[in-house]
């Protein structure tokens, strides 16, 4: 069970259509495949999707920090010493996505070594998650058409609508068009990626009061401390903290400050080990949780699915597990299939996924 090698392989897979949101846009999945090898010949895998405009990590930076800093710290530890791994990686304050991919690859290797699925090792609550689809910026007719297509093809009936544009009427028109088109047959919630001020958010929420929103997420920056507290205090639906809570300590700060009332858990930025801490903390505080998506490919989605299905609170709401549908291809030998609006966990050991070597050869950018 000893870790002998950690690989970080950059790859690039184009998107079928770009995803635009208030803090950035994505045209290609320029991610990093992380592989952890053990002395038993086991290989654990995970994926790191950098989001430079949010956490400051880049594809080159993730490869470099793993090769130059983290790999050496792990050498010789066993797969059971994950708290030791975490403590060593935690000396570096930043780089959440690089650390998380290492953590999840370790769990995959552990599951493979023990012959058990990771989701069951983590908690084993259920074998499926309902899926929520994220709709990037466009005009109302195109966003309704996209939602309709995703609903017909995959049975998805929960949509997270990206908002945060100016004027806010652009986004309000989209949410209204979706509600008018689908009636009460879909769940809708919104995510501003810090695009509005607290006052703009409050005005927009007032105009959308009749649209039966499930949640509002990160509409304005958490650093607008008093403004955000004022906004959250006015709302009668949960306000989700996402990029403002990349660590358990941030969850504590933001919740105690009244800056959020629910939590988005992203395995891409807290791995399995830290996500478990966030889950336990949120559970203890009595908060709603949603499994989020850092615009992961299918490897990252398999990770979010494994974690979300492991606990009651993380599988209660639809998880954001469908961004990979926007990609032109992926690295998995067996693509994930969303059926009847759900994704099913694998019953195989580890994460239950295999990398297709030909696809990796085609999309890796380090050769
Ligand atoms: C989200 O929930 O904000 C956009 C940027 C990112 O890191 O995640 C996505 C979705
Ligand atoms: Mg978000």
TrEMBL record:
One of its GO terms (biological process) is menaquinone biosynthetic process. Keywords: Isomerase, Magnesium, Menaquinone biosynthesis, Metal-binding. Residues 140-238 form the Mandelate racemase/muconate lactonizing enzyme C-terminal domain. Its cofactor is Mg(2+). Signal peptide: none annotated. GO terms for molecular function: magnesium ion binding; racemase and epimerase activity. Belongs to the mandelate racemase/muconate lactonizing enzyme family. PANTHER family: O-SUCCINYLBENZOATE SYNTHASE, O-SUCCINYLBENZOATE SYNTHASE-RELATED. This is Muconate cycloisomerase. It comes from Gordonia sihwensis NBRC 108236. The lineage of its organism: Bacteria, Bacillati, Actinomycetota, Actinomycetes, Mycobacteriales.
